[in-house]
Design a protein that fits this description.
It is built from 3 helices and no strands. By secondary structure, the protein is an all-alpha fold. The chain has one domain.
């Protein structure tokens, strides 16, 4: 499990560091909430830079 967390951290950067922090502090219940917030943030960034608007 530790090797999985290390590889995930190196691939995801800041988001991976946040997930490892939550995992080590035993805040597993926050991981889905943080993931949804990150996805919505990315959606807002990509939607605001759309060529349609």
């Amino acid at each position: 499990m530790k090797s999985f967390l290390r590889s995930m951290t190196s691939n995801l950067g800041v988001a991976g560091e946040l997930l490892v922090f939550l995992w080590r502090r035993k805040l597993w219940w926050l991981i889905p909430m943080v993931t949804v917030l990150l996805v919505f943030g990315l959606l807002l960034v990509f939607a605001s830079s759309s060529g349609l608007g």
